[in-house]
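Morning, I've got a small favour to ask if you have a moment. I'm working through a protein record and want to make sense of it properly. The fold is given in discrete form, as structure tokens running alongside the sequence. Can you walk me through what the tokens say about the fold? Thanks so much in advance, here it is:
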Amino acid sequence: MAIRYNGNPAIVLEVNHRTPGNLRAFVQCIIRYIGTGKSADIRFSSTEKVDVVETSRTPLEFSYHDHQGYHFMDPQTYETITLNEDLLGDSKQYLVENLKVEVLSIEGRPVQIELPSSVVLKVVESPEGVRGDSANNVQKSATLETGKTINVPLFIKEGEKIKVSTSDGTYLGRA
């Protein structure tokens, strides 16, 4: 959800409804301003009105990235949209060609990218596991095709495709 607070559009990250003891109920929110990217902790009383800002979600496919930014294509219109690196944040470590993502736009301006829960990435570099070093769930580091380094089990070799969680960057299994 997106709201207008102090004249600036902001994305609502977290909402908690509280009713402490014999006091009036209130809603506590954590918001992130779109223009500055700063977060704020705000309390609204139960009688306050909030302006809701129009949002839209657009399904796009990642095409490629270069010095201008990250290029996405709309599968319906074949239009190309370029997003800058600041907007993507850590999401860029999971972007591979033809990956379907959703872009959240507020007032026609893209503000956030939403990845699927997991992505399939190819292992490009992984040292061999030491034989006999398999006491309990021993892992080694592996570099993926996007440059991200994660911990994987010893049996994963270079060239294999693995499934990686986009929420915390952990190994989920072979693809």
Q: What stands out?
A: Residues 72 and 81 are 5 Å apart (CA to CA). The chain has one helix and 15 strands. Residues 2-52 form a domain with the SH3 type barrels. fold (CATH 2.30.30.30). The first strand starts at residue 2 and ends at 5.
